[in-house]
Amino acid sequence: MAIETRPESGAWAPEILSHWIGGRPIEVPPERTGPVYNPATGEVIARVPRGGTAEVDAAVAAAKAAFPAWRDMPLIARSSIFFQFRHLMYEHREELARLITRDHGKTYPDALTEVMRGLETVEYACGLPTLMAGMNTPSVSTDVDVHTLRQPLGVVAGITPFNFPVMVPTWIYPVALACGNTFILKPSSHTPGATQLQAELWKQAGLPDGVFNVVYGGREAVTAIVEHPGIEAIQFVGSTAVGTYVYEEGTRRGKRVTSFTSAKNMMLVLPDADMELAADAAVAAGYGSAGERCMAQTLIVAIGDAGDRLRPLMLDRIARLNVGPGMEPGVDMGPIYTADHRASVVKWIDRGEAEGAELVVDGRPFVHPTNPKGFFLGVTLFDHVQPGMDIYNEEIFGPVLGMVRVGTYDEAIRLLNGHQYANGTAIFTTDGGAARRFELESDVPMVGINVPIPVPVGYLSFGGAKKSALGDLKMRGEDSVRFFSRSKEVTVRWPEPGRRPGLSLVFPSNR
Ligand code: NAD
User: Fold this and answer.
1) CA–CA separation, 119 vs 92, rounded Å?
2) Do residue 29 and residue 167 come from a single domain?
């Protein structure tokens, strides 16, 4: 599929997208849709359905009907559909990336990398016969063997945010489907274009109808998923506020839920760091994708005199940044994804100024010369941000970077480990011993050493702690296999003739 872009002239109406249920698009009347904007121009480019209970009911019914055959499909047959989807996703990577850029605003090269990082998890799931393998232990007792199996849960769901319309869903559904579950995706309504295409690619790959379903919508659709008794498990990715609701209400109803939520990541810079490397990393990790990444580094914790040396190097790089439409070559940073969110980021900058942080670079006055109606914002740099300030405590999710000055490494690690969020962190240093200490002492699950955005490769698990995640298991990798399947332990006796154990009311012994 390709969503139309507005032609230069002539009659034009935005395309109305459809839910995807039972292997086909489900159309909705225009009054049950909301607008999708191109953030680079401010124009409405499509309309997305607002689903609710009826659509979730229909998706659960389709997924339930498809479940037994999908569960029982031979693993190699299931995995060959994954190989085909992998091939199609790779072939359509540029189209997927263009749709991401169009809806989200991030630059095209960034969007293309997003697709490729999502593909890693699809590739991991292609090995599903091995992922689903159990264990077999002969002779655990006289004539008794034990084996374990992994079985799917049934109908499961993913609820995903606006900022990675391909990568985050593809960090969830490949493993869910590989385990033999059928799936309902509730993506963000702000960035729906690439979702439609994913559904169509699954169909082309030969996935049976009803195995993969998409329901669009906001609060009503999410509530329907959380409350639906036919849905066994949910992986949520988004803000802490919504993630907490999904986790608490979902688990209260007996579902498995993990929520991967908001963040405020810190990058420590020691005085011995390679400052050129650290400056590149700080600017890239702070402003890439307009700061709309849960792994963005938003607080630079400069130790000793590192801040004095880092700041001019960062300013030099900031002065060279090109802010503009994400499809234009040479653009480093695109617009904010909605006008409302742009207004919220502006308020955070006002707040930081009022709180007394030093406003070194102010992104608020930026207007893009040829796209004045686009949701653009320049980059902002605060220095001397203090613990206790709201701009220190809270996630802004925009191109706003704060520098915190501390005297020692110990002070820096205290701040890091005392923060309410714990998603990713990084240290910049040339001292292997300091890096090793940091690796062991940091209370954050994803750590980078001279790597600013330490997103693990697709076959490893991903997830935070504290207010950045709710639930025990991470997403992707081995943790996701465990999350999306139930293990069963089977104890088997095939007694040799004449070796019947006989009647005994004693608890079974293995000796
Ligand atoms: P969001 O919480 O607003 O939306 C996430 C999902 O919940 C969407 O599908 C949305 O439609 C739905 N939703 C929104 N408001 C709702 C409500 N009131 N009731 C029920 N459902 C609702 O998040 P977002 O703005 O789309 O994404 C940004 C957030 O996601 C940031 O906080 C970011 O840190 C976080 N995020 C976290 C990770 C991670 O792995 N930890 C990854 C990406 C994004």
Assistant:
1) 11
2) yes
Atom number of ligand 1 nearest to Cα 469? 41
pLDDT in tens, the chain (511 residues): 444 444 444 556 778 999 999 999 999 999 999 999 999 999 999 999 999 999 999 999 999 999 999 999 999 999 999 999 999 999 999 999 999 999 999 999 999 999 999 999 999 999 999 999 999 999 999 999 999 999 999 999 999 999 999 999 999 999 999 999 999 999 999 999 999 899 999 999 999 999 999 999 999 999 999 999 999 999 999 999 999 999 999 999 999 999 999 999 999 999 999 999 999 999 999 999 999 999 999 999 999 999 999 999 999 999 999 999 999 999 999 999 999 999 999 999 999 999 999 999 999 999 999 999 999 999 999 999 999 999 999 999 999 999 999 999 999 999 999 999 999 999 999 999 999 999 999 999 999 999 999 999 999 999 999 999 999 999 999 999 999 999 999 999 998 888 888 899 999 888 8
Residue 294 is among the residues annotated as catalytic for this protein: yes
Same domain, 196 and 290: no
Ligand 1 centre to CA of 160 (Å) is 6
Asked if 330 and 428 sit in the same domain, the reply is yes
161 lines ligand 1 (CB under 6 A): yes
Nearest to 113 by CA among 164, 188, 173: 164
Containing domain of residue 481, as a range?
Answer: 15-261+468-489
Q: Which residue has the tokens 């769901």?
A: 157
Give the N- to C-terminal CA distance of the chain in Å, as an integer: 63
Same domain, 256 and 270: no
Q: Which atom of ligand 1 is found nearest the CA of 160?
A: 9
The Cβ-side half-sphere exposure at 32, using a 13 Å CA radius, reads: 18
The answer to whether position 235 is within a domain reads yes
